[in-house]
Structure formats: structure tokens, C-alpha cells
């Protein structure tokens, strides 16, 4: 794949591993995506397709560009003047950098959950209702219904239904992370980006988040950055292995972990390279 991707002047071709994806509908299509921080390359001509209603994991050594790639998908780098970008990202066929794209609307469609749970300093209910109120939803009954639906979707309703008006900060770390997921789901995103969503959590909370990821893919596209290869193997349908900003191999998760095409991938997944 690298021979194709590293050829700066050739039009992006379909790398062989993408044959696995032939039957999948696209959510994101990236072509020739390069990104640099203050001139220093962090992503190098990535061309990949992220299938709709599947879980796609980005794995690779520390600093290989996983979070940078994830953040590019909802234009979080717009806030950083030092970032330069080349190439294209399309969401459902539309260029996310086109002038007519409203960035706030893009970020509603493409929600993001970070490593450390970040509930707002307000009640459980108000956290989940936050984005809805920003959208102008005022009717209490409608808010109540969506808050319950979102908390239920995030597998948290039963644990918080009697404490909706208590501070979100009183919840455990795992509950806080599911609350943040509920807050994101409340505005009905099409995509959920998850940046190491369980790395700050205990094993039981981690399993709950993994179960939730598997459940949510029936209605959403999920993209997961993880250091934990067992986690990628457990929850994802497709896995992309990055190294030094380059997409090394991208395949169905089972294939990548059991029968990688490239020695570099095998070295990484067998722990011969960290
Ligand atoms: N805001 C920033 N400013 C400057 N350089 C950055 C910034 N964020 C990331 N980088 C650099 O870009 C490269 C990719 O970083 P990134 O965080 O995307 O990697 P990662 O694979 O997610 O790493 P980790 O697994 O350690 O979180 C690294 O060299 C990193 O130092």
C-alpha cells in the first residue's frame, strides 16, 4: 500500500486491502490526506474509507498520528493555526472543508468523546439536555423524553434515573464517560469518534464501554482510537494500523490480527515493535 500512497503525483488508487470493504457503504472517504503541525508531518497521504455503521479502530505506536487523524474527521484542527492540511475528507460524499459546511453542524453530526470523561459542572440531566437546549429545544416533555432515550442508549439510565438532578461530578469515572456518550448521542450524531474512551477506566467500566460500542453500531458509525490491541480486536470490524503518520495496513479486524499482509504489521501486533 505504501508504494501507492507515497507516490505524491499519482491519483489515489484503491489499495489492495480495501477489497475487504467492497460491500460496505462509505461514511467517510479520505483521499491523500496529509497534515502537519508547524510544518512537521503528522499524517502522510492517507487514503481510506470508513464504512457506515461499523466500528473502525485506529491502532499504532505512540505518536503515529491516531488522534490527529481522528480529530481531522470533525475538523477539530481548525482551532489550531499551526496545522496545515492537504487532501480531502468527505462525509457521506460531501467535502467537510467545503465553504458551505457549517462546522458546528459537522460537529453535531460527528460527535467526539475524549480519553478523560469531561461532564460539565451541572446536573446529569442538564449535561444531556445541554446540546438540545443549544439547538432551541425548550419543551420540558420533549427534553425529558430525549434525555431518557440518550441515557438509556448509553446504558446509564437505570443507574441515574433517581439522581437526574444531582451533580454529574458525583458519578464514577465509568458513569461519567457513559454520561458524556449520552450527551453526545442526545443531538443524534451520525458518527461517534472515540479517543481512547476507556483508558482512564477500571476493567468493569471498560467492558461496559466496549459493550456499548458494539450496541451503538446498529445505528451509528464509530471510529475508535486505542492503544489496546485486544480492545480493537474485541470491538472493531475494521482496523487501520498507522506508523509514523503513514497508513501501513487496513483490513477487516480478523484479517489484520490473524493474517496481516505486511511484516511491519505483524511485528507490531505480536509485540516485536512498540
Ligand atoms: N497540538 C500539537 N502540536 C504539535 N504537534 C503535535 C500536536 N498534537 C500532536 N502532535 C504531534 O503529531 C504526531 C502525532 O501525534 P498524535 O497525538 O496524533 O499521535 P497518537 O498516535 O495519537 O499518539 P498517542 O498514542 O501517544 O496518543 C506526534 O509527533 C505528536 O508529537
UniProtKB/TrEMBL annotation:
Q: Name one GO molecular function term.
A: ATP binding
Q: Does the keyword Nucleotide-binding apply?
A: yes
> Which InterPro entries does the record associate with it?
AAA+_ATPase, ABC_transporter-like_ATP-bd, ABC_transporter-like_CS, P-loop_NTPase, PstB-like
Q: Which residues form a coiled coil?
A: none
Does the entry feature the keyword Hydrolase, yes or no?
no
PROSITE patterns with a match to the protein in the record: ABC_TRANSPORTER_1 (PS00211), ABC_TRANSPORTER_2 (PS50893)
**What are the UniProt keywords, alphabetically?**
ATP-binding, Cell inner membrane, Cell membrane, Membrane, Nucleotide-binding, Phosphate transport, Translocase, Transport
Q: Which domain of life is it from?
A: Bacteria
GO BP: any one term: phosphate ion transmembrane transport
Q: Please state every residue range assigned to the domain named ABC transporter.
A: 28-269
Q: Name one GO cellular component term.
A: membrane
Which protein is depicted? Phosphate ABC transporter ATP-binding protein, PhoT family (TC 3.A.1.7.1)
Organism for this UniProt entry: Modicisalibacter muralis
Amino acid at each position: 500500500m505504501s508504494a501507492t500512497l507515497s507516490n505524491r503525483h499519482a491519483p489515489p488508487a484503491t489499495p489492495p486491502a480495501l477489497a475487504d470493504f467492497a460491500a460496505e457503504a462509505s461514511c467517510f472517504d479520505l483521499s491523500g490526506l496529509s497534515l502537519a503541525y508547524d510544518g512537521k508531518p503528522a499524517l502522510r497521504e492517507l487514503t481510506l474509507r470508513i464504512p457506515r455503521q461499523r466500528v473502525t479502530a485506529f491502532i499504532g505506536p505512540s505518536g503515529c498520528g491516531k488522534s490527529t487523524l481522528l480529530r481531522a474527521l470533525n475538523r477539530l484542527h481548525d482551532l489550531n493555526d499551526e496545522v496545515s492540511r492537504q487532501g480531502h475528507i468527505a462525509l457521506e460524499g460531501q467535502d467537510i472543508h467545503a465553504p458551505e459546511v457549517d462546522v458546528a453542524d459537522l460537529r453535531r453530526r460527528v460527535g467526539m468523546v475524549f480519553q478523560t470523561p469531561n461532564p460539565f459542572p451541572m446536573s446529569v440531566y442538564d449535561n444531556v439536555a445541554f446540546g438540545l437546549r443549544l439547538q432551541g429545544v425548550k419543551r420540558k416533555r420533549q427534553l425529558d423524553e430525549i434525555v431518557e432515550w440518550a441515557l438509556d442508549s448509553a446504558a446509564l439510565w437505570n443507574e441515574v434515573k433517581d439522581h437526574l438532578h444531582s451533580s454529574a461530578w458525583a458519578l464514577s469515572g465509568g458513569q461519567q464517560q457513559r454520561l458524556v456518550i449520552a450527551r453526545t448521542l442526545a443531538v443524534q450524531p451520525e458518527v461517534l469518534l472515540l479517543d481512547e474512551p476507556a483508558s482512564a477506566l477500571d476493567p468493569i467500566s471498560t467492558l461496559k464501554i466496549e459493550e456499548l460500542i458494539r450496541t451503538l453500531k446498529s445505528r451509528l458509525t464509530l471510529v475508535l482510537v486505542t492503544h489496546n490491541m485486544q480492545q480493537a480486536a474485541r470491538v472493531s470490524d475494521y482496523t487501520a494500523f498507522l506508523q509514523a503518520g503513514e497508513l501501513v495496513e487496513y483490513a477487516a479486524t480478523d484479517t489484520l490480527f490473524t493474517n496481516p499482509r505486511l511484516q511491519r504489521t505483524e511485528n507490531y501486533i505480536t509485540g516485536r515493535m512498540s
